[in-house]
Design a protein that fits this description.
The protein has helices at 16-29, 56-65, 72-84, and strands at residues 6-12, 33-40, 44-52, 68-70, 91-100. The N and C termini lie far apart (47 Å). The chain has a 5-stranded mixed β-sheet with strand order 2-3-5-1-4. The protein is 32% helix and 32% strand. It has 116 residues and is α+β, with helices and mostly antiparallel strands. The protein contains 3 helices and 5 strands. It has one domain (6-100).
Length: 116
């Protein structure tokens, strides 16, 4: 049976660089690791990671302490997945979509012309 990915969503008013670092630090402090990330200008980032089921509650608390607010469904999913895991060491694959709330303009990327 293939494990389903735990889909999470959150927002923060913190600087995007600081918030991203805080989330990644919380993942590694909980015994997990970052598998992939995708940035969407300076508006959002999606982080895909793996973390032990027994660390989910502590990870969620670390996010809150770092100024990242998970939506109600995400908080409930963390509690549910952590409590229903038969083994606290079982690996949970998750994806966090983090939206940055700010008044900055979108980042503009200059793409050089490629001859061809």
């Amino acid at each position: 049976m293939r494990a389903r990915i735990l889909m999470l969503a959150g927002v923060t008013r913190r600087d995007r660089h600081q918030a991203t670092t805080a989330v990644i630090d919380a993942i590694t402090d909980a015994g997990g690791w970052l598998a992939d990330s995708t940035r969407f200008s300076n508006i959002a980032i999606t982080l895909r990671f793996t973390i032990p089921a027994g660390s989910l509650a502590g990870w969620g608390a670390a996010l809150a302490a770092a100024g990242v607010v998970l939506d109600d469904e995400s908080r409930a999913s963390l509690v549910d997945r952590g409590q229903t895991a038969r083994d606290p060491d079982v690996e949970v694959t998750a994806a966090l979509s983090l939206t940055f709330i700010h008044n900055e303009p979108d980042l503009r990327q200059e793409v050089p012309a490629v001859p061809g």
